[in-house]
Fold this protein.
Amino acid sequence: MYGEAVGRLITELKRLPGIGQRTAERLAFHLVQAPREEGLALAAAIRDVKENVRPCRRCFNVTEQDPCRICADPARDHGLLCVVERPQDVLALEKVGGFRGLYHVLLGAVSLLEGVGPDDLTLRPLLDRVRQGGVRELILATNPTFDGDATALHLRAALEPLGIKVTRLARGLPSGSSLELASKANLAEALEGRQAY
Amino acid sequence: MYGEAVGRLITELKRLPGIGQRTAERLAFHLVQAPREEGLALAAAIRDVKENVRPCRRCFNVTEQDPCRICADPARDHGLLCVVERPQDVLALEKVGGFRGLYHVLLGAVSLLEGVGPDDLTLRPLLDRVRQGGVRELILATNPTFDGDATALHLRAALEPLGIKVTRLARGLPSGSSLELASKANLAEALEGRQAY
C-alpha cells in the first residue's frame, strides 16, 4: 500500500519503545512530508549518537567523554554514590538539582519476568568501585516497583559484607496528592515510614 | 546534563508530531542504549525516505515511482476519484479494501486557525484532472472535523461549475458504539442522515 522505503521506515520506527503500528505510520508519513533538511538532521543526530555516545567506564551513564562530566567533576562529593537503574534516572535526579554526589547506573533492574539477573547489570563494577575505597554512603534509587525493589534487596545483600552505609529513597505520599486517591500500598508505606514532626 | 549529541537528538525527535520533551528523552535514551545496528538502520531508513519518496505527480500520494502504483494500475476505476486530506488517509481506505477507484491527496485541509487556504492545497491540480475528462464521480473523503468540512464545502463550490457528480462519506453512528455515549453532534447527524430500512 505504501512503497518499500516507507514500509522499512515504519518497521524501524516500531522498534522504538511505546511506538506501535499507528504511531509509526503517523511518524513515517510526517517524515515523508517534512522538509528534506528536517529528516536528514534527525538521521544525522541518530548516527551521531550511535557513533559518539558510550557508557562512562566508571558510572555507566551515557556520555561523549570518558569518564563522564559528573565523574570527572572534582566539585562533586565522590564519597556519595546514588545507584539508579537507567541513564534517564540520572537526568531526572540532576533536574531536581540538590544531589551533589556521583551516580552508578545499573543499566536495568533484576526481573524474573524478563529473565534479567544481577549478572546482567553493572553490579560487579559497582562492588569494585566500593571496594576501591572512598565511598562513604550508597543511596539505592531504583524505581519503586516490584523489579526495582527486588534489585534494591539484592544490592543490599551484596553490599552488606563491605560495611558501608546503605540508604534508599523515602517512600510515602507524593506531595500534592490526596489520601483518598492513594493506593493501599502507598498508604501502608506512608504509615510505616511515618516521621517525627 | 547529557552530552551535545544526545541533546541534539532530543531536539530533532521533538520536531516529530506528538513527541514532547519526555517522549523525546525516552526515545533518545533508548537509541543510545540500543544495538548499534538498530540505530543505524533507523537513520538509514529515514535518509532513504527523504532521498527516494516523492509525491505522485497525478494524485500527490507518496510514492517511490511516478505515477504511483494506484494511478498506474489499469485494473482500477479511473472514473472514480476519492479526495482525501493526507497520504495516511489513502492507507486507511486501502486497508478497508473495497474501493477500486483512484485518489487525490490534498496534502492538508483548509484551516483558518493555521492559516491554510485552498491555494496551499493541491486543489488546482484536482480541478485540472477533472477538466481533462474521464472522471465520473468525485467522493469527498475529508476528515469529519471542522477543517475537513470546511474543505469539503470549498471543494463542492469549486467543482460545481464542472458538472460532475460529487458525493461525500456517510455520517452517522459508528458500528459498535452506543447511543448513550454518542456526542450530540454525532446523534444529530445520524438522525438527519437516517436511511430507509
